[in-house]
Amino acid sequence: MNAPLPGFTETAFEHEGVTKRVFRRGTGPGVVIMHELPGLIPADAALGLRVADAGYTVFMPSLMGTPGRPESLLYQLEGVARLCVSREFNGLATRRRSPITDWLRALCRSVHAELGGRGVGAIGLCLTGNFALALMIDPVIAAPVLGEPAIPVPFTCAQRGALQLSDAELGAVKERVAAGTPVLGLRFTGDRMCPRERFDRLSAELGDGFERIDIDSSAGNVHGIPTSAHSVLTRDLVDREGHPTREALDRVLAFLHERLVDSRD
After folding, report:
1. What is the CATH number of the domain that holds 84?
2. Dist. CA 248–CA 252, nearest whole Å
């Protein structure tokens, strides 16, 4: 039987009775990459390979779905259905974080305990995009990256600008940013799942501590990016020098280096 994610070593991590599969590759500082809907698809694994090959130890937990299963419309619909009923993800909550972030914080602490260094990188994608904010409550997170954060699902005006954090948790994030831990965020301008209001809220709350990359996906944009584009670093990545998605990926890698490797303060 073929391995679910070729090039990765499969392990398991348990916290408070919850055990999930984790896929690992590389050497160097630790980076936890959290997958998008509907699960740990090949496009997400490709991102993990790219980050690992850039000099990091990548950990990719499988939070839902079947690792390595190719994407399809049916698989997407199954993922949406799981998200809607999942108590782990709180897909509609505006001021409560997802409980799964407790398990993820424990994973990040374990990674840092093993590898040491300046801290751990955390890259969230789509449904896990805002998780990097929730993980910042733990001081081991040194390089949080928000890839098109899509929950809470933006059905209402309140949800469009929501960050899925309580007031106390948002306060803790702001304290960490003020103390010198910046946040990087990526989205397409036409993305309805990650609306402009969400990044505007982050800019208002975090000020210069939030570095935002808004990639033009309006009709007729010069790079031909479809208006439906959503996944900056995975499905919609155009790995060509000079393309804005490639530049966004390069910025993520540079951000990880600045926060996890570069010793200059």
Report:
1. 3.40.50.1820
2. 6
